[in-house]
Design brief:
Chain lengths: 509, 502
């Protein structure tokens, strides 16, 4: 089994699914469901089994072949606990998204084809261990996302799609130029090879001797900018609310649930290992930006009236915690206690990535259902008293909302708790200010619950149908997963902790 | 073996000329057969040439008193460009399927042009190379002047004058080299080994390089290119951008750099920060990259956008040549191939698939036509071709431009920084054209059905689908697995650079 290219199969499977969906016309959604289910099964297999087939650098299921030797390009794939969990998350979110998209009348073949290509882009970038390969899939995921917004989005989809594309593309160019420079200095594009070079300080010396003493810092800034757009980090977030609001809700599920994780993943897989020392140098402004992302995201969410925009800004806030913890890792830590804090923080980041993916995707799914039932309404003031006509929907959505709020016993709490547990001893100021974000988020979520579910029944909500049987069936596993991770977090933590320790051991700040 | 590409094309051209009038269908199929046969030969020659160095096919004395040989040979660079020519020829015929006016004459000129191009890429005698180079200019003129559109006489004449001026410079340089070398042979090998004095090389190199670079669209001598591309019928635009501009770049490399390697040496003094011809031409190349992209961004005519984009992309070829290192020159050759495919595809979509149906190329008018709904095939094809042109990874352009940039970085990082601007603007103009032409915001929402009110366009025909599939497939294949070409290009570039350059 060690020889079997399971990761290649994982990436190719959705592409095949996309080709079939494209030709399937009206049956495209069924094709996409089958394909997404198969991908999920395969991703779960990778997640449970990867550590039993170890290869170079502690990665599992490694595939390594020559590709373009003159450019240092190899076909190099592998997973560790971080990437395996992201594969599972991508597979779950894609399945949810396909499930939620039950009203695509306009060219469903193309729609589901693009969704599956996006899934392939996610899989490819989460398994790549060579810059070229990674960049290929990073860009590949951008194109279907653009067209999904552009062709199936809301009234102002044109500008939203363009803004999304231009921001991400500018970030990509920054990344490309930085890696060009790294390649010129080292003749390598291999993440693991570069990580080793960086951990001995050799990378910095090579870059300095080729490009001048301050080049490494500029490269770090370029790479950080590329990822900051994708996550997004304040002040690079301005594309996000429009894109999330104008995209059809199932596509928003994919954008926030899976694609935003590509940015955080890039920080963990590329920015910290290669540019740790430089990030340490500029950690203070970065921490300020991370805290701003947390606080600004929460405040902006509080100011919105549109449910999709509320959850969009709330996503900014939730990923802000990841940024906070990541930049905290760059604070020089001495002693066993500090190192334990770092491990807490990093475990928290990965867990938060997973939890936010599931919860945010679920919330946008609920918004999609509410839109379908009311002919497109999604303003917070347009609903009211929904718990009477639709108690099951109110209950399940309530669980998702409380997960987003970070209620203990649900998944959202565990990640944020670990992050704060790790960050506080290291940078207590940042942690303290960020608590403000937690408070405001709580107010926002409670306001949503109050206005939508309680109070007098709004006019057009009288005939609001509750969840159908099949909808309950589709949502049940997702809600169950929130409870499961909330109550038994070791289920995931045990699978990522060895990777966390391995990552920390190879970073040099 | 590869020599047959030349003979086949000229024989095809002759047959077309002799064909009775009014047999358009026969003429088309004959042209396609000749082009496919040429491609088959090119592919066979490419495959059988893998792992081999230079192979000579024919070496006959032609004008013995002057030492002129009919010398046809191929190294890796030639084989790749011959393959490109074969692909461009097939695609060109496919996208000319709707030519009704004097069909057989059109294909006669078309095949003669192709034959001349094959000839240039396979000639290893300077005089012979020059002859084929001139042969390629004449059919170009007629293709534009007879079958062209916007201001075709002006464009055809401008193109011819620029081409002839360039070849005159080349010719003077060549005659000077021939007499200075004092050798009695015009083969490239003999001239390269003649030990031309350094001062002579310094003076002669810019003349020859510039002469060829005019045809490669080097700024500020590029102005023939956009007007020529726009006026030309679709197949001729495809060939102009696809292979004819490569003739210029190929001449720069095969003749300019290989014969006068010392022409690139430092002058020993610095003028405005420029210390050698290499600096001068690299600067012009970088200006071309940025200028072409900026001007493309400002165009109102769809075809002009593509025309100026060619100037920008050819700037990468010239920049790659001026790096004079293995990776940069390899990138330049790969970029010649890649741009040939992608530019051909873009011109085919704009000129054939869109213009022949909408009868306008003005972006402002296309904006109101809902083309993403009415011509979804064209919209999809242009989106893919646009991505390839932007240099997204996975397409051939990415690997080629990446290598050029890495090569340039090793020489002068500022060249890369400036070219980076060109790349970003490149995304912008492609994007703008895609948005305006196909996805304008005047679109109704997907659930309305306004199609009923629209006049029907002629449906997409099989040659168009085949042509798009062929060119897209090649660009993707090379982008995902560039080794297929690089293994052939790299040793040839190595040998060429070892022949005297640094």
């Amino acid at each position: 089994m060690n020889e079997f290219p399971i990761l290649t199969l994982l990436t190719v499977l959705p592409l095949v699914g996309a080709a079939v969906a494209l030709m399937a016309g009206k049956h495209a959604r069924n094709v996409a469901l089958v394909s997404a289910l198969a991908s999920l099964a395969l991703a779960l297999l990778v997640w449970t089994e990867w550590s039993r087939f170890p290869g170079i650098g502690g990665y599992g299921f490694v595939e390594q072949h020559a590709w373009v030797s003159s450019l240092g390009i190899e076909y190099h794939l592998g997973v560790d606990g971080l990437s395996a969990l992201m594969l599972v998350l991508s597979a779950i979110v894609t399945l949810m998204s396909v499930d939620a998209a039950n009203r695509v009348h306009h060219n469903p073949g193309l729609y589901f084809g693009l969704v599956l290509v996006l899934e392939a882009g996610l899989f490819g970038s989460f398994t790549a261990l060579n810059f070229f390969h990674w960049f290929l899939f990073w860009e590949l995921s951008l194109i279907p996302a653009f067209f999904l917004i552009k062709l199936w989005g809301g009234a102002r989809r044109g500008p939203a799609a363009t803004q999304f594309f231009v921001y991400t593309m500018a970030g990509s160019v920054a990344l490309l130029i930085a890696f060009l420079a790294v390649f010129v200095a080292t003749n390598s594009m291999d993440f693991w090879h570069l990580t080793l070079l960086a951990s001995t300080g050799e990378l910095e010396q090579l870059v300095a001797s080729h490009l001048g003493p301050h080049a490494m810092l500029w490269l770090a800034i370029a790479v950080l900018a590329g990822f900051a757009v994708k996550v997004p980090m304040f002040p690079f977030h301005t594309w996000l609310p429009a894109a999330y609001a104008e995209a059809p809700s199932p596509v928003t599920m994919l954008l926030t649930g899976a694609m935003s994780k590509m940015g955080v993943y890039g920080l963990l897989r590329i920015a910290l290992p290669l540019f740790g020392a430089q990030i340490t140098q500029i950690r203070t402004p970065l921490l300020v930006l991370a805290v701003s992302t947390v606080v600004m995201g929460a405040w902006a969410a509080a100011a919105q009236k549109d449910l999709k925009r509320i959850f969009a800004y709330s996503s900014v806030n939730h990923l802000g915690y990841c940024l906070l913890a990541i930049f905290t890792l760059a604070v020089p830590a001495a002693g066993a206690a500090s190192q334990a804090s770092q491990a807490f923080a990093l475990n928290g980041v990965i867990l938060q990535m997973f939890n936010h993916g599931i919860t945010a995707a679920a919330l946008f799914w609920f918004v999609a259902m509410m839109q379908q039932r009311t002919g497109g309404h999604r303003g917070i003031d347009q609903f009211g008293g929904l718990r009477k006509p639709a108690p099951v929907l109110a209950g399940l959505m309530g669980i998702a909302l409380f997960s987003s709020l970070g209620l203990p016993g649900l998944n959202g709490f565990v990640g944020e708790f670990l992050i704060f547990r790790g960050v506080f001893p290291l940078v207590w100021v940042a942690a303290t200010v960020s608590v403000l974000g937690l408070l405001v988020t709580a107010v926002v979520i409670l306001t949503v619950i109050q206005k939508v579910f309680w109070g007098p029944l709004a006019n057009h909500c009288e005939n609001f149908p509750d969840l159908q049987h099949n909808e309950r069936l589709a949502l049940a596993p997702v809600i169950a997963l929130m409870l499961l991770v909330g109550l038994v977090p070791s289920l995931i933590v045990d699978s990522i902790n060895p990777t966390v320790l391995n990552l920390l051991a190879h970073w040099r700040f | 073996m590869l020599a047959w590409t030349i003979y086949l094309s000229f024989a095809g051209a002759l047959a077309q000329a002799l064909l009775p009038k009014g047999r358009a269908a026969l003429s088309r199929w004959l042209a396609l057969a000749v082009a496919v046969a040429g491609l088959a030969v090119a592919v066979t020659g490419f495959v059988s040439g893998m792992g081999q160095g230079r192979v000579t096919f024919v070496d006959l004395p032609w004008v013995p008193s002057m030492g002129i040989h009919f010398l046809l040979a191929a190294d890796g660079i030639s084989r790749v460009l011959v393959l490109l020519t074969g692909l461009a020829a097939v695609a060109g015929v496919l996208f000319s399927w709707n030519i009704e006016l004097r069909t057989n004459e059109f294909f006669a000129f078309f095949l003669a042009l192709i034959g001349g191009v094959y000839g240039v890429f396979l000639s290893f005698d300077l005089f012979l190379l020059f002859v084929f180079y001139e042969i390629a200019i004449v059919p170009k003129y007629f293709l534009i002047a007879i079958w062209g559109s916007t201001r075709r006489e002006y464009a055809a004449m401008k193109l011819a004058i620029y081409s002839f001026a360039g070849s005159a410079m080349v010719l003077i340089g060549l005659l000077a080299a021939y007499s200075t070398a004092g050798s009695h042979s015009t083969t490239l090998d003999a001239l390269a080994h003649a030990g031309l004095p350094v001062s002579f090389q310094m003076g002669c190199f810019p003349l020859v390089f510039l002469g060829f670079a005019i045809l490669a669209g080097m700024w500020p001598f590029h102005t023939w290119a956009p007007t020529g591309h726009v006026a030309a019928p679709t197949a001729a635009s495809m060939l102009l951008a696809g292979v004819v501009m490569k003739l210029g770049a190929y001449g720069c490399l095969r003749v300019g750099i290989a014969l006068f390697p010392h022409g690139l040496d430092p002058w020993g003094l610095s003028l405005l920060g420029l210390g050698s011809w290499r600096d001068v031409f690299a600067l012009l190349a970088v200006i071309g990259i940025v200028y072409g992209a900026l001007v493309a961004l400002a165009q109102t005519d769809f075809k002009f956008v593509i025309g100026y984009s060619s100037v920008s992309h050819m700037g990468f070829v010239l920049l790659g040549l001026m790096t004079l290192n293995q990776i940069g020159v390899t990138g330049a050759v790969l970029q010649m191939f890649s741009h040939g495919i992608i530019a051909g595809l873009l011109f085919a979509i704009v000129g054939r698939i869109v213009y022949d149906r909408t009868h306008t190329r003005q972006l402002a008018e296309l904006e109101t036509m809902h083309l993403s709904k009415r011509l979804p095939f064209a919209a999809g094809a242009f989106a893919v071709a646009g991505m390839a042109s932007m240099g997204l990874p996975g397409f051939s352009g990415f690997v080629a431009e990446l290598q050029v940039l890495i090569g340039a970085w090793k020489v002068n990082p500022w060249w890369v920084a400036a070219s980076g601007i060109g790349i970003i603007v490149g995304v912008a103009y492609t994007w703008r054209a895609l948005q305006k032409a196909f996805f304008a915001d005047a679109l109704p929402t997907p659930d309305e059905h306004p199609k009923t009110g629209w006049p029907k366009f002629e449906p997409i025909s099989w040659p168009e689908v085949t042509g798009v599939a062929l060119l897209t497939g090649v660009s993707l294949a090379v982008g995902l697995y560039p080794k297929i070409l690089l293994d052939t290009i790299e040793p040839a570039v190595k040998a060429l650079l070892a022949g005297g350059v640094q």
